[in-house]
Amino acid sequence: RKEVEQDPGPFNVPEGATVAFNCTYSNSASQSFFWYRQDCRKEPKLLMSVYSSGNEDGRFTAQLNRASQYISLLIRDSKLSDSATYLCVSDPAGTYKYIFGTGTRLKVLA
Amino acid sequence: DGGITQSPKYLFRKEGQNVTLSCEQNLNHDAMYWYRQDPGQGLRLIYYSQIVNDFQKGDIAEGYSVSREKKESFPLTVTSAQKNPTAFYLCASSKLDRESPLHFGNGTRLTVT
After folding, report:
1. B21 and B108 in contact (C-beta within 8 Å)?
2. Which residues does A58 contact at the CB level (< 8 Å), separation at least 6?
3. Shortest alpha-carbon distance between residue B25 and chain A (Å)
4. Does the beta-carbon distance from B56 to A43 stay under 8 Å?
5. Distance between the two ends of chain A, CA-based, in angstroms?
6. Residue-wise pLDDT tens digits, B67-92
7. Cβ contacts (< 8 Å) between A97 and chain B: which residues?
8. Phi and psi, residue A80, nearest 5°
9. How far does the CA of residue B81 sit from the closest CA of chain A (Å)?
10. What's the mean pLDDT in A63-86?
């Protein structure tokens, strides 16, 4: 089983839709979780940190479910500019060895 | 402005040649990382370092080497032993703090023919 797994998509959604992605992790000792956004042929950019209590930033909400070992990202009122690949990352065993999921591709359609 | 600088942005080499990718950061971060990304794929960890003069292998270290002689610098050498070196290489750094995310450079796109 991979340490960090994501559904690769693509998720094709209309503008204004709400879309959610999950990312599962295999090591229960993982301490840090983040969501990154990556545009084509560019470096990943931090979207959100994921805290135990959840985290909200405008249209974006991130949650951590330790019991089921997954993190989630919810995007409300999708914009065309949200089209990108969304990467989750964690540090298995809490060692600062950051492992990325393969990414989930989102396409927001006009 | 603080940040991570990777150079060059594009690099072309002939098969059989070693090539070194540069990564410099002025964020005073302790940890530095090298990732490789192939088209349509996620990031795979090559090497990482949490302190000067020490580094650990990631998941795909074969055919690569690194050094960490200074806190600011973490160069990656792609050796001729790497079977499929053509890829997008990303350098990152972070504080050793559970809530501190990775900061990325702009990447180096290496093509070996």
Report:
1. yes
2. none
3. 15
4. no
5. 37
6. 999 999 999 999 999 999 999 999 99
7. 45, 48, 56, 58
8. -55, -35
9. 24
10. 96
Question: Please, which residues have CB within 8 angstroms of residue A56's CB and are 6 or more apart in sequence?
Answer: A62
d(CA A27, CA A31): 10
Instruction: Give the integer Cα–Cα distance in Å for B3 and B27.
Output: 6
**One-letter identity of residue B4:** I
Query: Are the beta carbons of B43 and A31 separated by less than 8 Å?
Result: no
Distance CA B19, CA A107 (A): 36
Joined together, the tokens standing for residue B58 give 């990631």
pLDDT one-digit tens code per residue, A3-28: 899 999 899 999 999 999 999 999 88
Paired tokens of B100? 């501190």
Task: Sort B10 into a burial class: Cβ within 10 Å, 0-12 / 13-18 / 19+.
Answer: exposed
Element (H, E) at A22: strand A19-25
Q: What is the rounded CA–CA span in Å between residue B97 and residue A9?
A: 32
Closest to B50 in 3D by CA, of A29, A95, A44, A30:
A95
